[in-house]
Amino acid sequence: MYILSPQQIAKADKATIKTNGITSIELMEYAATECFQWLHQRLQGQNIKIHVFCGIGNNGGDGLVIARHLYQNDYNIDCYVVNFSDKRTPEFLENYNRLKELGKWPTIINNENDFPTVSFDDIVIDAIFGIGLSRKPTGFTKKLIKYINSTKVFTLAIDFPSGLFGDKSVTDKNSVLKAGHILTFQTPKLAFLLPENKEFLNTWEVIDIGLDLNFIENLKPTINYITKEKILSFYKPRNKWSHKGTFGHSLLIGGSFGKIGAITLASKAALKIGSGLVSAYIPKCGYNILQISIPEIMVEVDDDNTLSYFNIKTKPTVIGIGPGMGTQEKTALGFYNFLKENSNPLIIDADAINLLSLNPKLLELLPKNTILTPHPKELERLIGTWKNDYDKLNKSIEFSKKHTVVLVIKGAHTVIVNGTNLTFNSTGNPALATAGSGDVLTGLITGLVAQGYEPQIAAIFGVYLHGKTADIAIQQTGYETFTASTIIDYLAEALLDIFTNEETETKNSEPETEN
Fold it and tell me: If you ran DSSP here, which 8-state letter would residue 106 be given?
């Protein structure tokens, strides 16, 4: 599923109107009616006070359509026009007149004295500003937003929370309406997926309003939101004549005294995701642990308690390196020598990323399309500090382009950065915020690359499955008892889930959390 910018959405609206031979009023009527139907299905005529706040642009027009349908279905509703400007769009005016024809005149809010009483048990429908907002709300409009927020009322935002920007960071938190749920049109919005906006929204889902998909495809969007349907298209079915050599040989390098668990988890994940062979290269202190914990893998050893020599005899297809490795001086030197000699595809995590940060010249030694899997602090060490989440994405894009690497930036909505292409994950929940979760992800991606998946696809696929295990398991485990080993335990169910015939998920509830 593509994520479109405000400018791309505006173009898609115009193209749809032209291609389908409809008017903008008709497109608005369809989109807003879909929102009404969503609400109507859930309320079923309940006598709950509903406040519909409309701006004077097209988002306000959506609100007026919803208000009309609510009136016609005998809901307990008050509709308001937030009169922050003397400019009205034609679509707003048309729907304002349609509402008046019913004998339902909206209340005009001209100043703070016109604010209605909103109670905690009411519902607020937010249609004040849409995604095209370019300036922060001021004056009585800002005060209205602050007032609605102060009531803690449930707020349903139509397409976009008022005061939030579609393509830049918030500069005044008091001028953004906090949405309990968002019904957004056609595609997810980038602003919903950025950590800095988490206090302004809770959950959201996409309402298909029938925009021209061919036109959207031709826009060649560079930001994607991954869905089950897309993941299914990535899957490589197995041929009955295959053998273990067909599915590659994963080598996991890492571990140090006290941190053998990290490389154990990564190795087990690579095996479980289907790598034909798996080897681990570890310090001697972990030999018995690996051999007993995972009898299916092979083990090579280095120095007693740390990695120093990187004297690897295995001939792998792909190498995942870093979990539990440490950054000791001998390890850093051995890592440098390893990179100089290595020609295998790499997945770099944890301490191996930290060593790259300590010596950026090592980045020049990475094979093309190396995958790096940093959490936010590790990313900061790589690319430097950022002003906001938009700046972080831009710096990550530049880093990816400069070094020809794939970044897997772990977080609530893990994002895969490959040059200018961004792919946000749709699965996962806070259960993944547990020790070792990132080590498992490294193993999953390594095992997928071993089987022949292209680096970007392996990263997207691995991240999706990683999150899906938590979505499935949480019903039995709860958040607190979920561990990194649980990810591996539920991996089979996550894989099988991509073949179910459920409708493509367009809802966002509990996103993947930084691991």
Answer: P
Average pLDDT of every residue of the chain: 96
User: What is the DSSP code (8-state) at residue 59?
Assistant: H
Beta bridge partners of 2: 224
For residue 400, list its beta bridge partners: none
5 touches 167 (CB < 8 A): yes
Residue 502 is predicted with a pLDDT of 62
Q: What band does 5 get if pLDDT is binned at 50, 70 and 90?
A: very high
Residues 16-55, buried b or exposed e (16+ Cβ, 10 A)?
bbeeeeeebbebbbebbbbbbebbbeeeeeeeebbbbbbb
Tell which residue, 431, 466, 474, has the closest CA to residue 266. 466
DSSP for residue 207:
E
**What is the model's pLDDT at position 130?**
92
**By C-alpha distance, which of 163, 198, 186 is closest to 3?**
186
Q: Average pLDDT for residues 243-259, to the nearest whole number?
A: 96
SS3 of 367-432: the string is: CCCEEECCCHHHHHHHHCCCCCHHHHHHHHHHHHHHHCEEEEECCCCCEEEECCEEEECCCCCHHH
pLDDT for 256 beyond 70 = yes
- CA–CA distance from 487 to each of 232, 391, 414, 484 (Å)? 20, 32, 16, 5
Separate counts of helices (H) and strands (E) for the chain: 17, 18
What is the percent of the chain where pLDDT is above 90?
95
Contacts of 335 (CB under 8 A, 6+ apart): 307, 310, 321, 325, 352, 355, 362
Q: How far apart are CA 448 and CA 362, in angstroms?
A: 25
State pLDDT tens for residues 454-478.
Answer: 999 999 999 999 999 999 999 999 9
The answer to whether 258 and 38 have CB atoms below 8 angstroms apart is no
Mean pLDDT of 181-202: 97
Compute the distance between CA of residue 405 and CA of residue 421 in angstroms, rounded to an integer.
12
Rounded CA-CA distance 179/6 in Å is 19
Structure tokens at 362: 């090592």
Q: Please report the pLDDT score of residue 139 as a whole number.
A: 97
What confidence score (pLDDT) does residue 511 get?
46
Q: CA 293 to CA 299: how far, in whole Å?
A: 12
**pLDDT at 3 > cutoff 90:** yes
Matching residue, tokens 């642009």? 57
C-alpha of 107 from chain center? 39
> How many whole angstroms separate alpha carbon 337 and alpha carbon 339?
5
Task: Give the distance from CA 66 to its chain's centroid.
Answer: 29
| pLDDT (tens digit per residue) in 218-242 | 999 999 999 999 999 999 999 989 8
